[in-house]
Amino acid sequence: MIASANRLRSVGWLVLLGLCLALVLVLAFRVNALRSQIHQTESRIVALKQEKLYLETEFETRSNQQQLKVWNDVEFGYAAPGAGQYLEGERQLAALSVPTLADAPAPIRVASVDDSVIASAAFPAMVSPLSGKPLDAKAEKIEAKAEPRTAKVVHDEAVETLNERLGKVVDSRPRKPVLNETASDKDKPAAKKANKPAKVEKAVAAADKSKTKGSKAAPAPRAAKGKEAKAAK
Amino acid sequence: MNALTASAAIASGRVKLANVRQRSLVEAKVRVLVVAFLFLFAGFAAFARILQLGFFEEAPERRSLAEALLPPRGEITDRNGVPLARAFPAYALWYNPKAFGEKGQPLVKSPEEVATALMQIFPDADQADLLRRLKSDKPSYLIRRVMPEEANRIFALGEPALEFPRENQRYYPQGSLGAHVLGYVDGEGKGHVGMEQVLEKQLLDPAQRGRPVSLSIDMRAQGALEDELGRGMMETEAKGAAGIILDVDTGEVVALASLPSFNPNRSDMAYNDLVFNKVTNQVYELGSTFKPLSVAAAIDAGVVTDLSVRYPANRPLEIGGFRIRDSHPFGASLNVPEALIHSSNIVTAQVADKLGGPALKKTMAALGMNERPYIELPARGFPLWPRGHEKSGEWARITTMTVSYGHGIAVTPLHLAAAYAAMVNGGVWRPATLFKVDPAKAPEGRRVFKASTSARMRQLLRMIVVDGTGKSANAPGFRVGGKTGSAEKPGGKGGYNRTSLVATFAAAFPMDKPRYVVIAMLDEPKGTAATSFQRTAAWNAGPIVGRVIPRVGPFLGVVPDDTRDIDISDLSPLVGNGNGE
After folding, report:
1. Is A199 inside a domain boundary?
2. Do A65 and B564 touch (CB under 8 A)?
3. Which of A98, A219, B420, B542 pairs with A157 at a CA distance of 20 to 30 A?
4. How far is CA B559 from CA A81, B144, B223, B565, in A?
5. With 60 as the cut, is the pLDDT of residue B513 above it?
6. Are B206 and B226 in the same domain?
7. Are strands B240-247 and B253-259 parallel, antiparallel or unpaired?
């Protein structure tokens, strides 16, 4: 009996081993199948990307500048936009509706100046009444949400949105501080200062939190003391 | 007895049989052994091979996604990411005479018929050459690059000997546009002429070639410049044309064109004179376009403080047997603004004489006129810088005077563009570059003129276009300022050839806040009906600039505006209108 039970047990182990091996094999097959699937997918992605490149290149070739020029000459006849098709800002928009009088003087023409200089001159950075330091744009936005009556118009943004509405081609290059040394000098401290108030605010907020925490945490020791006292009794 | 004899006989037979049987048994056993041994050996060999493969052989190459998509040569794009040059798997047409094996005819139809059919698909191919290749028994390329639809048409011919191997080639979607900037890649994959040669290492480096290299070129501006230069060249029957658009603040070259151009897609045909870059490699005496530079030097040095001072202009200046004359008399005297507007050699020479050779030489050297132009391209011409005195190196008086109006000094159009950029941008000279520059990180450059001089020169350049010889370049709303230059080419009798000119227009816009310098140059333009039978820059190069600026301005962030202009009211009273050169 004992011998047969032992044999049965060993056969059982063998069966278990076989089963495990079979399972491992199945798993290995599945893993490999998945791997080759991934590989297939990858090669398909590569093929598709190459196809895309191919089509894109063909498109670029068919629509190259010389070809577009020929089409424009033969079919479309588009010309570069003239000055009348652009609007500079609110002033020009308003001027459109006003008819020019017969004896009106010739309009005054002015040279273009860096927008940033005008904006900084027209709207100096808002100064915090507490710290005396200029507030940064974020702080201003938060204030604008909280108290819309005191909200200030950010000139740069306003100009931009108007330009967007009027479909003006905006100079996308960041403003160049190279020659304009004074402007860049001005910018730097402004940026530094602008960062500071945010930190100060954070610090204040943190202090507030710690206070509230402190107030919540304060009763706890008393309770603990009470427990201790009870235990002592 | 009988039985005994019989058994004996049988026994002897049996013995023999037993021997045979035993022998054959042994033989069979040996054979089995041999076969078994062979099997064992084969099994062992197979096992050993498997072990060898498993443990010692390298795994088969499995290219990852990134590797497979890595181009064999990096892409080049323009400043907005438009591809200018990319590695592209294109088809080639390959003739394989052994398509049907060693023996037999390789072609189904006769070579003549096939060549004729190919000529219908590729009209610009050489039929005799195709026929020669089709008749030969050596495999060869018939056509190096075939478009997919052409490949389909060839496939329809039903010739198995015509094969289309897919090959990685360099492809330029914009064709000949910007060819001198890009250069080309030869059959062995080596870059030549332009940025292909300059960036060779970077484009082939596996770590870097995945990222495209973006140049400072704007393809739309390049297209417009080449188109208008080509038109000007055709109208004036000029030998060649060159043009450049340069950002005055960063030194970025936005467009650079040298015509006639070549097609980098046909690298087999690129070995010719057309690869010579007229903008960076060819030096010209650029004539009157130098006058503003000389005047700027004089204003900067404090020699010209009062622009209303008048200089005699009624007769040619005679210096050491050399006569400086104007194209036609402009009156008894001219002041400096009038001299620029009418382009008077006589007055400019007097101003330069007052300034003196050393000061003019110093300014010209500070503008980089005595060295090769600064740009990445390998082809950069060395200027013809006037030789000075043997000992002191100073220019002779006459040299100073001729240099002041752009003769006796020969530079490339790129030199001129960089000098004009310095003159209008506030006075800082910066090297030109073909790489995109962050405006905040523009090179510092070197100061050549004071900011006040630059402001004054902007006014004067604008006046030349409003009132003077540059009227034809006055694109409405773009506040163009610039100067014409029509220089006689060296050669012929008396040092200069009176009939062959180099007509240049050097301009900047918008003059109230200059952003770009535009140079257009025509080599030996002729007087045609399109230019009212005039050969000077005001009639041919000027109009090119006047047409290019409205086309490129809006792309480059300069919009036409009638309400803006530079203030020239303080100088306007100084000039009376008139026509000059």
Report:
1. yes
2. no
3. A98
4. 9, 45, 19, 12
5. yes
6. no
7. antiparallel
Partners of residue B563 in chain A, C-beta under 8 Å:
88, 92, 107, 109-110
Query: Distance between CA atoms of B195 and B214, rounded to whole angstroms?
Result: 11
pLDDT higher than threshold 90 for residue B351: yes
Number of domains in chain A: 2
Q: Report yes or no: B243 and B257 within 8 Å, Cβ to Cβ.
A: yes
Q: Which domain holds residue A156?
A: 116-171+180-218
Looking at residue B142, its amino acid is L
Note down the domain range covering B114: 75-214
Confidence of residue A219 (pLDDT cuts 50, 70, 90): very low
With contacts defined as CB-CB under 8 Å, which chain B residues touch A166? Answer: none
- Residue A168's pLDDT band (cuts 50, 70, 90): low
- Mutation for testing the A interface, residue in B150, B217, B248, B561 having most A CBs under 10 Å: B561
* Number of H-type helices and E-type strands within chain B: 17, 19
- ipTM entry: 0.74
B325/B399 same-domain check? yes
Rounded to the nearest 10 degrees, what angle do helices A115-122 and A181-217 cross at? 50
Claim to verify: residue B186 and residue B308 sit in the same structural domain = no
Contact B197, B182 (CB under 8 A): no
Which pLDDT value is given to residue B2?
A: 55
Collapsing DSSP states into helix, strand and coil, what is residue B558? coil
CB crowding A204-225: b at 16 or more within 10 Å, else e:
eeeeeeeeeeeeeeeeeeeeee
Show the beta-strand stretches assigned E in B368-464: 428-429, 446-447
Tell me: do B192 and B269 sit in the same domain: no
- Position B336 scores a pLDDT of 92
Instruction: Tell whether the model's pLDDT for residue B548 goes beyond 90.
Output: yes
**pLDDT tens profile B292-320:** 999 999 999 999 999 989 999 888 888 88
Contact A64 B177 (CB under 8 A): yes
Test the A interface: residue of B563, B566, B567, B568 with most A CBs within 10 Å: B563
In this structure, the answer to whether residues A146 and A211 fall within a common structural domain is yes
Contact criterion met (CB below 8 Å) for B283 and B410: yes
User: What confidence score (pLDDT) does residue A2 get?
Assistant: 65
How far B303 CA lies from chain A's nearest CA (Å)? 26
Same domain, A120 and A210: yes
A114 has a pLDDT exceeding 60: no
Q: Is B288 a catalytic residue?
A: yes
Q: What is the pLDDT of residues A33-51, one digit of tens each?
A: 999 999 899 889 988 988 8
Cβ contact, residue pair B249, A60, below 8 Å: no
Question: What are the angstrom distances between the C-alpha of B343 and each of B42, B375, B405, B525?
Answer: 98, 30, 9, 19
Residues B254 and B387 occupy one common structural domain: yes
Report the DSSP pairing between strands B446-447 and B481-490.
Answer: unpaired
Q: Report yes or no on B22 lying in a domain.
A: no
Give pTM, 2 decimals: 0.73
Q: Are residues B442 and B532 located together in one domain of the fold?
A: yes
**B409-438, pLDDT tens digit by residue?**
999 999 999 999 999 998 999 999 999 988
pLDDT band at A154 (very low <50, low <70, confident <90, very high): low
Q: B86, A53: Cβ pair inside 8 Å?
A: yes
What is B221-240 written as a DSSP string? Answer: HHHHHHHHHHHHHHHHT-SE
Crossing angle, helix B357-366 and helix B291-300, to 10 degrees?
A: 110
C-alpha span between B518 and B256 (Å, rounded): 10
pLDDT of amino acid B246: 95
Q: Which helix (H) or strand (E) holds A141?
A: helix A137-146
Q: Which helix (H) or strand (E) holds B311?
A: strand B310-312
Report yes or no on B280 lying in a domain: yes
Cβ contact A109–B442 (<8 Å): no
The answer as to whether B69 is a domain residue is: no
CA nearest to B336, candidates B325, B328, B344: B344
Q: Is the pLDDT of residue A190 over 90?
A: no
